[in-house]
Amino acid sequence: MTAFETWLAMGGYAAFVWPAYAVAAGVLGGLALWSWRRHRRSGEVLAHLQGQFGARE
Amino acid sequence: MLTRLANPARFMRVSGTLLPWFGGASAVVLALGLVWSLVIAPPDYQQGESVRIMFVHVPAAWMALSVYLLIAVASGVALVARHPLAEIAAQAAAPVGAAFTLVCLATGSLWGRPMWGTWWVWDARLTSVLVLFFLYLGYIALVNAFDDSSRGARAGSLLALVGVVNLPIIKFSVDWWNTLHQPASVLRLGGPSIDKSLLLPLLVMAAGFALLFVWLLFLRMRTALNERKARALSLYGEPAARRGDSAPARSPGLATGPR
């Protein structure tokens, strides 16, 4: 086994270590992506409305 | 500092400046923490490589508790001082806290299987953290359950305050009851009992999670303020929105407001 394969095998705990990190990355990354998109959209909607009402901001 | 920030317009300015810094810092610290946790840190003498699960499990648990405490404090401020920014902060933090709790439960389960021989056990620590997860979900559901958003926010604030009794139960469950879950090894009297080679990456990951939380909190609070302002603008036209009024959900002059 190469050093990389040894590392991937995690001393036999690969089936538990990697899913743990995947769940953390998936849940937190997903939340971050969703929050970021919603933030951008809310800014666009507000800018559009402010343009409609001629607000200077 | 807090009272000065507690003005929505000023909050938007300050958070807009800080947002990229917190985002960048959390990315850098989390990247460092991941390399340290997965490559540099040595395997535990008893648990072997499975101890690496700790580096996400424990910081997620700390965040799950801290974020709930923040929601409870913000809810108390919202109920007493009626400040809209406190409600917005609590509501913005809730999904983030729920996500950390979910990560804590899932990674704990993945760690329990090889170390304890079971995915789940109804001991006091695991059960009280599951209750915390349901408190988060209940808070989010309750806040969104009312047509009148201010009533939803009040009900949610009350639930958040009542649920705070669960926090000491979680923290001390491992001392009060005979649990399968191990007692505290970092936040304990007499200092951490965990070796420095494992403690340092743990603290780096915890810092990364905390920075990520602040970034998400600011991002989600800004989103809520943008949405409130957009709603006020579309309901009442510009003058009301400029005063920073948040529109009540039911109002008589929906279509005929001043333009």
What can you see in these coordinates?
The complex is a heterodimer of chains A (57) and B (259). Chain A is mainly α. Chain A has helices spanning 3-9, 14-52. Chain A has one domain (3-52). Chain A is built from two helices and no strands. Chain A starts with a helix and ends in a 5-residue tail after the last helix. The relative contact order of chain A is 0.07. With 259 residues, chain B is mostly helical. Chain B has a domain at 52-178 and 194-239. Chain B has helices spanning 2-5, 8-40, 54-81, 84-116, 124-143, 149-162, 166-176, 196-236, 238-243. The radius of gyration of chain B is 21 Å and the shape is globular. The model of chain B is unreliable at 247-259 (pLDDT under 50). The A-B interface holds A 7, 10-13, 16-17, 19-21, 23-24, 27-28, 31-32, 35-36, 38-39, 42-43, 45-46, 49-50, 53-55 and B 34, 38-39, 43, 48-50, 52-53, 56-57, 60, 95-96, 99-100, 102-103, 106-107, 110-111, 113-114, 212, 215-216, 219-220, 222-223, 226-227, 229-230, 233-234, 237-238, 241-242.
Which descriptors would you attach to this protein?
heterodimer; A: 57 residues; mainly alpha; 2 helices; 81% helix; 0% strand; rod-shaped; B: 259 residues; 9 helices; globular; disordered C terminus
Give a topology summary:
The complex is a heterodimer of chains A (57) and B (259).
Chain A: H1 3-9, H2 14-52
Chain B: H1 2-5, H2 8-40, H3 54-81, H4 84-116, H5 124-143, H6 149-162, H7 166-176, H8 196-236, H9 238-243
Helix pairs in contact in B: 2-8, 3-4, 3-6, 3-8, 4-5, 4-8, 5-6, 5-7
Largest sheet of chain B: none
The coarse silhouette of chain B is: globular
**Roughly how much helix do the residues of chain A carry, as a percent range?**
over 70%
The tally of helices of chain B reads 9
Strand content of chain A: under 5%
Helix content of chain B: over 70%
Number of DSSP strand runs of chain B: 0
What form of chain A results from the Cα inertia axes?
rod-shaped
Rg on CA atoms of chain B, Å: 21 Å
The DSSP helix count of chain A reads 2
Domain unit count of chain A: 1
Average pLDDT across residues of chain B?
88
Order of helices and strands of chain B, N to C?
HHHHHHHHH
Structural class computed from helices and strand pairing of chain A: mainly alpha
Q: Distance N terminus to C terminus of chain A?
A: 62 Å
Q: What's the quaternary structure here?
A: heterodimer
Beta-strand portion of chain B reads: under 5%
